[in-house]
Amino acid sequence: MNPSRQSPHFLGSRYDGIRGAEATGPRQNARGLTHQYKPKEKRVNVPKVVSTRRPQHKPKLGQHFLANDSFALQIVDALGDASQNTVLEIGPGRGVLTSLLAKRVRRLIAVELDRVLAAQLRLRFGMFPNVEVIEADILSIDIDSLFGPKPGLSRPGIQLKPEPVKVIGNLPYYITSDILLRLFDYSKYFETVVILVQKEVADRIAAEPGSRDYGLLSATTQLYARVEKLFTLPPGAFAPPPKVHSTVLRLTMAPRQQELGLSPESLGKDGVGKSGFIDFLKLSFGQKRKTLWNNLKADYPEPRLRAALAQAGVKPAARAETLSLAESAALFRALRGNHDGS
Questions:
Q1: What is the per-residue pLDDT for 315?
Q2: Residues 6+ apart with CB under 8 A from 172
Q3: CA 41 from centre of chain
Q4: Is 233 helix (H, G, I), strand (E, B) or coil?
Q5: What is the pLDDT of residues 192-247, one digit of tens each?
Q6: CA 219, CA 188: separation in Å to the nearest integer?
Q7: Which of 19, 147, 192, 342 sees the fewest Cβ atoms within 10 Å?
Q8: Helix, strand, coil percent content, the chain, rounded in steps of 5
Q9: Whether the Cβ atoms of residue 229 and residue 206 lie closer than 8 Å to each other
Q10: Residue of higher predicted confidence among 40 and 276
Q11: Contact criterion met (CB below 8 Å) for 62 and 173
Q12: How far apart (Å, rounded) are the C-alpha atoms in residues 183 and 138?
């Protein structure tokens, strides 16, 4: 319906004065004013603030909502048996995955940033005693308080092993990397992670060393988990449809730090802090077209860097994407060893 036919005046800040005149002025004047200021049928530049039309599906916070029940079932199945597990759902949105999970898992914690969606989810799943909806940003929520030891339960000399938690989510495209890094920060709590991400990002995460897509995100993810690409969804599986395909990944948490000779201290604070292996990877992949030598020489003295490359068996002309994680770790250890011995 054309907004101009809904009422004798347009509602909105630009027309409030006219509405007031209609309510208080003489009838013939109000008609005149209404006729004088009423937008014509063919007007196209109607300000958005006064438009009564809204798109049927508007993406919230950059998210495209899963709208295909068949794909939703496949994604939940990828978690495996979770009947005795706690499951963390990131960005439940309209609850397509949530409705399946609520009937399958022992405990479900759904973290939703959007206030309206969170309220709707609470109403919808209020009768499920195993479902908890938290309105929060997954990047700032206190994960230790959710899954760590509860106050009063700890005893001196006794270490309680965290209950393995499974994670699932349709991740907003623009913060996929940030969410993954957040999960890796707290990898001790997580067992399996099933995520739906942009296909291009999935290709980078699963890429092998030496391939064009292999980079910092690939190396970091594969340091913490085994990666499987499961299946790809077309844009039509979402509302509103994105312009790209999406892929479901399964990450089985299997940190390789001990295998690669990386002590917790060598990783830095919480595994990703300053002067740690993750920072070394960031330097190595800093400019992909540059060689390792050129990327690292600004942070390490040339004699020390040359000696470490030789010790690790890495050519100075090599690029970071050609190195396996084991080779990158060997170079990192050599650089730290040379530093400690200097």
A1: 95
A2: 61, 62, 63, 91
A3: 45
A4: strand
A5: 999 999 999 999 999 999 999 999 999 999 999 999 999 999 999 999 999 999 99
A6: 19
A7: 342
A8: 45, 15, 40
A9: yes
A10: 276
A11: yes
A12: 9
Place of tokens 């508007």: 58
Q: How far apart are CA 292 and CA 314, in angstroms?
A: 9
Neighbouring-strand partners of residue 305: none
pLDDT at 288: 80
**Distance from C-alpha of 290 to C-alpha of 311, rounded to nearest angstrom:** 21
Domain residue ranges of the chain, discontinuous segments joined by +: 3-50, 65-253, 264-341
Q: Each residue of 144-162: pLDDT tens digit? A: 999 988 765 555 555 567 7
Q: pTM (2 decimals)? A: 0.77
Q: How many CB atoms lie within 10 A of CB 88?
A: 25
Q: Kindly state the helix (H) or strand (E) to which residue 131 belongs, with its residue range.
A: strand 131-135
Residue with tokens 């030891």: 149
pLDDT of 263 reads 73
DSSP annotation of 65: E
Name the CATH superfamily housing domain 264-341: rRNA adenine dimethylase, C-terminal domain (1.10.8.100)
Judging by beta carbons within 10 Å of its beta carbon (0-12, 13-18, 19+), is residue 44 exposed, middle or buried?
exposed
Mean predicted confidence (pLDDT) in 316-332: 96
C-alpha distances out from residue 307 to 300, 301, 327, 332, 338, Å: 11, 10, 15, 12, 8
Mean pLDDT estimate for the chain: 82
How far is the C-alpha of 264 from the C-alpha of 266, rounded, in Å? 5
CA distance 43 to 2: 10
Q: How far is Cα 150 from Cα 13, in angstroms, rounded to an integer? A: 52
Q: Which CATH superfamily is domain 65-253 in?
A: Vaccinia Virus protein VP39 (3.40.50.150)
Token readout for 100 is 């399946």
Look at residue 140 in the predicted model and tell me its pLDDT: 94
For the chain, give the percent of residues with pLDDT over 90: 68
- Going across the sheet that includes 107-112, the strands are 131-135, 107-112, 86-90, 165-170, 190-198, 246-253, 225-233
